[in-house]
């Protein structure tokens, strides 16, 4: 089975440009999470969805960030306009309906560099 | 507000030694405590997890010890191997949802 798929794996852009990160969760999973990882701040939860509905977006840094989940197999995280401080590795993770184990399955991440 | 504090930030251990990583939490509503392992260039992956109804859980060379009254839990890596060199994250969540709060991470280096 394919795991969580993220694209692109690497993105280099210039300040002010729009950036869109994509995620395909594992089939059958009903939770989807977006994280940001930096050396300074560690692993931060940005937003998560349950059954395609945003549940908690309190971690979204500011209005420049937005996330959507139009269907169960696809989600996007958009940054517009991008800034150098947005440079980080962005992870998408999904979780199955099994509430006993609560395991999150992470994708390989997208390394974003904003020049 | 950092709800899960992890220490140390880095750790060097000799092959065959024991690695110990500690975490402390504040929110008494947390009832699920996983540890994730992350290799360079990869996403974190679940290593082992515990619920507060037990004080210890062991899977192979990895053991979680849990102290509910102290609101602390730790990961012990026995007989550490160079392949264990990775960053380890503790985390915590409440029963009602799958949202995980992660600790700051510990970079472990096992020297051959």
Condensed summary:
The complex is a heterodimer of chains A (115) and B (112). Chain A has 115 residues and is mostly beta strands. Chain A has strands at 5-7, 10-13, 19-24, 31-38, 42-50, 53-56, 65-71, 74-79, 88-95, 105-106, 110-114.
Average predicted local confidence, pLDDT of chain B: 93
Overall, the morphology of chain A is: globular
The radius of gyration over CA of chain B amounts to 13 Å
Overall average residue pLDDT of chain A:
93
Largest sheet of chain B: 6 strands, mixed
What separation lies between the terminal Cα atoms of chain B? 38 Å
Q: Counting H and I runs of at least 4 residues, what is the number of helices of chain B?
A: 0
The largest β sheet of chain A comes out as:
7 strands, mixed
Q: Using CB atoms under 8 Å apart, which protein chain pair has the greatest interface?
A: A-B, 23 and 21 residues
- Quaternary state of this entry equals heterodimer
Low-pLDDT stretches of chain B: none
String of helices and strands of chain A: EEEEEEEEEEE
By DSSP, the count of extended strands of chain A is 11
Low-confidence stretches of chain A: none
Radius of gyration of chain A: 13 Å
Proportion of β residues of chain A? over 45%
Fraction of helical residues of chain B: under 10%
